[in-house]
Design brief:
The protein is mainly alpha-helical. It has one domain: ABC transporter involved in vitamin B12 uptake, BtuC. The protein is 73% helix and 3% strand. It is built from 13 helices and four strands. The strands form two sheets. Strands 1-4 form a two-stranded antiparallel sheet. Helix 2 packs across helix 12 and helix 4 packs antiparallel against helix 5. The radius of gyration is 22 Å and the shape is globular. It starts with 14 loop residues before the first helix and ends with a helix.
Length: 343
């Protein structure tokens, strides 16, 4: 007959000791995340220093503002997809979804004649609808996020062409629409309103991810989906909410993109999702889920914008720009794999 071994009370760790170990582990995770953000920040500084040395036209006020402007649309897309990637998912529809939202802005404002404020809100909510559909497909129907959002990418691309009649939609009755992105708010300096909107979006995303229940459940689902469900959390509902919120960022990016061009262009969008995902990964968010930050995503977005701008200024051909960006993405993913193995 076998006996069940008993735990020696004298050797068993106390509750206080266990809590201390947990707290130490949490501090270690936070410290490691801070170090990763620090490395990304140092990389950004080194890249800026390199291009500043390579060209006298890089480190100027106007060019730095151009970099921030270029980072705005991709950065807002990256903010939303950060939440999705932390859950362990992926969203490939954000690029063409943004284009479809821009087309819908043209429908609301030009075809239907809605007021500017109402058309902008409706466009952002339409982006949320795209995210809602993605969330239902992934969470309720159980379709892998890669396939579900790939299908939505194709659907959004086709609908953009169908709704617009394959032609750009302009905003003749809303001349103030282009001011949403392009209005300069600092006298004497071309500092566009779109960059301010980007900064506000960063603050909102950071607060939601770090200070709310939604943010905690986002990390929990990505770290261990099964354990989160067993703890009584309605994982499906929260996953739908996360995808819907990511869609709201897509709608906002659609408004800013159409405003910047002063028209809704029904073509394009494919490839933007890769730049946004690359920015998220470069910023330290793991593709396997459970880890990430808004600060890291912002740094990653700036790195992508600085690389594109700097390579263009030093006259690197477009095809080689793509090669450099691709190599950077590969390095970022490989470093993420190494971090996972060490963890």
């Amino acid at each position: 007959m076998t006996t069940t071994p008993q735990l020696d009370p004298d050797k068993a760790p106390s509750t206080t000791a266990y809590q201390t170990m947990q707290a130490g582990g949490s501090r270690f995770v936070r410290l490691r995340g801070s170090l990763q953000q620090l490395l990304a920040g140092v990389s950004l500084i080194l890249i800026v220093a390199f291009f500043s040395f390579a060209s006298p036209y890089f480190f100027t006020v106007n060019n730095l503002i151009s970099i921030l402007t270029a980072a705005t649309v991709t950065g807002i897309l990256a903010l939303g997809t950060t939440f999705v990637i932390i859950t362990g998912g992926i969203d490939l529809s954000i690029g063409t979804g943004m284009i479809l939202c821009g087309v819908m802005a043209g429908v609301f404002l030009t075809y239907w004649g809605w007021p500017l404020w109402l058309g902008v809100i409706a466009t952002i909510l339409f982006g949320g609808l795209i995210g809602l559909v993605n969330g239902v497909n992934v969470s309720i129907l159980g379709i892998p996020s890669f396939i579900a959002t790939l299908a939505m990418m194709l659907v959004a691309s086709g609908l953009s062409l169908v709704i617009s009649g394959t032609k750009p939609i302009y905003f003749p009755d809303h001349p103030a629409f282009q001011s949403i992105m392009n209005l300069s708010i600092i006298p004497g300096i071309r500092f566009p309103l779109g960059v301010v909107i980007f900064i506000v979006a960063i603050v909102i995303a950071a607060i939601v991810l770090s200070k709310t229940v939604l943010g905690r459940y986002t990390f929990s689902i990505g770290s261990n989906r099964a354990a989160t469900a067993l703890s009584g959390v309605n994982v499906k509902r929260w996953e739908i909410i996360i995808y819907t919120m990511a869609g709201l960022f897509v709608g906002l990016a659609g408004v800013l993109s159409a405003s910047r061009l002063s028209s809704a262009q029904p073509t394009g969008g494919m490839g933007l999702e890769l730049l946004a995902i690359a920015a998220v990964v470069i910023g330290g968010t793991s593709l396997q889920g459970g880890k990430g930050s808004i600060v890291g995503t912002v740094i990653g977005s700036l790195i992508m914008a600085v690389l594109t701008n700097g390579l263009r200024i030093i006259s690197v051909p477009q095809e080689w720009q793509n090669v450099v960006v691709g190599i950077v993405v590969l390095i970022a993913v490989y470093l993420d794999m190494l971090r996972r193995k060490r963890a």
